[in-house]
UniProtKB/TrEMBL annotation:
GO biological process terms held by the UniProt record: prolyl-tRNA aminoacylation
Location of the Aminoacyl-transfer RNA synthetases class-II family profile domain: 38-316
One family name in Pfam for this protein: tRNA-synt_2b
Entry-linked Gene3D superfamilies: Anticodon-binding domain, Bira Bifunctional Protein, Domain 2
Protein name, as recorded: Proline--tRNA ligase
GO cellular component entries: cytosol
Top-level EC class as recorded in UniProt: ligase
InterPro entries from the UniProt entry: aa-tRNA-synt_IIb, aa-tRNA-synth_II, aa-tRNA-synth_II/BPL/LPL, Anticodon-bd, Anticodon-bd_dom_sf, Pro-tRNA-ligase_IIa, Pro-tRNA_synthetase, ProRS_anticodon_short
Length: 411
């Protein structure tokens, strides 16, 4: 990609109302744009990052047998009345009227929609289990939408739903999803803890939250300094230093960002919505149900909160918008040489942003630091037939041959 063509350009200063680091840096770098509080466009650079985050999530979902689909966002009032959540979730549910005064809700989650799919398509125990997920928008009338892209009124979620014949089968799959979530957040480089929490408008049971340790978080968790067992502040009844109920360790406290939450819902939804299957003896029973959510847009904001310095973002390789950033320092014949390097890297399957603009070296370096691609490749008269390799994280730079650059980027 040629940087001269990239939409939009970077910004020298952050918006006046921006309070959080992710808001400031993602807007300045040209990753996101705010339409109004809590409502964001994912610009081309931001969309590239989200696509990479989603690829990591999708791989792990498919690996545990889940099937991807896509559900609608506009829901009839009647379906929300079946579980009582039209009223119970009133605070966050966006409600609207259509033709002939008919009432609708904008989706804040999809349990009711999956339940409706199941009751139309499940007959016997032979049709279960079912594991389905989608990536789509959620709408929530959030009272505070101040933490940049960490809290949107419209945001992206990957939500997975599982339906089972027995509680044991549900809990077994629940553990599998917990492990898959652990792998996703490890691949993203997060220092996270799993915290027990309440189920809010979803369930009376305890749920498990995936909490990334960060001062930018709105949550507080208490967790064991030894085994990592954790509880959200909302249910924790002890104090810092108390002994862990699971081992000899002690509780410590941290601010944190909730990036994922899994819910062992039970049979309540199936009972309310009449989602029944016939067992071996011909008896009808409600299905056991669980749901599991990760917010990719909040994940992107979290990555920025924990990977930045005073100059800009420092993307981890696995989610960076490009593999490397070529910076060409102007000289008579460097353009030709850079063009050759750019196309050859492209041929080698490496995704490159090439700063081909006619601006000063200082401006190019400042933008490269802001955008935060992990590897910067400088081509100039001084680098001769080699390329200067510098990592966004480090201070050192080295001269490398083209082949060395390819090997390192592919490794
Ligand atoms: P919070 O407590 O932060 O309001 P929640 O517990 O209501 O979030 P869940 O219903 O558990 O959210 O949603 C699953 C996941 O979706 C969360 O773990 C988070 O990653 C993401 N998410 C939830 N609300 C938002 C939001 N307003 N903006 C961006 N992502 C969100
Ligand atoms: Mg939650």
């Amino acid at each position: 990609m040629l940087q001269s063509k990239l939409f939009p350009k970077t910004k020298k200063s952050a918006p006046k109302d921006a309070e959080s680091v992710n808001h400031k840096l993602l807007v300045r770098g040209g990753f996101i744009d705010q339409l109004m509080a809590g409502s964001w466009t994912l610009l081309p650079l931001g969309w590239k990052v989200i696509t990479k985050i989603n690829r990591i999530i999708r791989e792990e979902m498919n690996a545990i047998g889940a099937q991807e689909m896509l559900m609608p966002l506009l829901h009839p009032k009647e379906i929300w009345n079946e579980t009582g959540r039209w009223d119970k979730a009133s605070e966050i549910l966006y409600k609207l009227k259509g033709q002939n005064e008919k009432e609708y809700a904008l989706s804040f989650t999809h349990e009711e929609i999956v339940m409706d799919l199941l009751r139309k398509n499940i007959q016997s125990y032979q049709d279960l289990p079912v594991y389905v997920y989608h990536f789509s928008t959620k709408f929530r009338n959030e009272p505070r939408a101040k933490s940049g892209i960490l809290r949107g009124r419209e945001f992206m979620m990957k939500d997975l739903y599982s339906a089972h014949v027995t509680e044991a089968d549900m809990l077994d799959y629940y553990e599998k999803v917990k492990e898959a979530y652990g792998r996703i957040f490890s691949k993203l480089g997060f220092d996270f803890r799993i915290a027990e929490a309440s189920g809010g408008v979803f369930t009376d049971r305890h749920t498990h939250e995936f909490q990334v340790l960060s001062d930018a978080g709105e949550d507080t968790i208490y967790f064991c300094d030894r085994c990592g067992y954790g509880e959200n502040k909302e249910i924790f009844q002890g104090k810092v230093g108390d002994k862990c109920p699971k081992c000899d360790g002690h509780f410590v406290e941290s601010r944190s960002i909730e990036v994922g939450n899994i819910f062992p819902l039970g049979t309540m939804y199936a009972e309310k919505m009449g989602v029944l299957y016939t067992d071996h003896d011909g008896k009808k029973n409600p299905v056991w149900f669980a749901s599991y959510g990760i917010g990719p847009t909040r994940v992107m904001g979290t990555l920025v909160e924990i990977n930045h310095d005073d100059k800009g973002i420092v993307w981890p390789k696995q989610v960076a918008p490009f593999d490397a950033h070529i910076i060409e320092l102007k000289s008579q014949n460097s353009k030709l040489k850079t063009e050759e390097i750019y196309y050859n890297l492209h041929e080698a399957g490496i995704d490159i942003l090439w700063d081909d603009r006619a601006v000063s070296a200082g401006e190019k370096f400042a933008d490269a630091d802001l955008i935060g691609i992990p590897v910067r490749l400088v081509v100039s008269e001084k680098t001769g037939d080699k390329i200067e390799w510098k990592e966004r994280k480090g201070k050192e730079s080295e001269l490398k041959t083209f082949d060395e650059v390819v090997r390192r980027l592919k490794g």
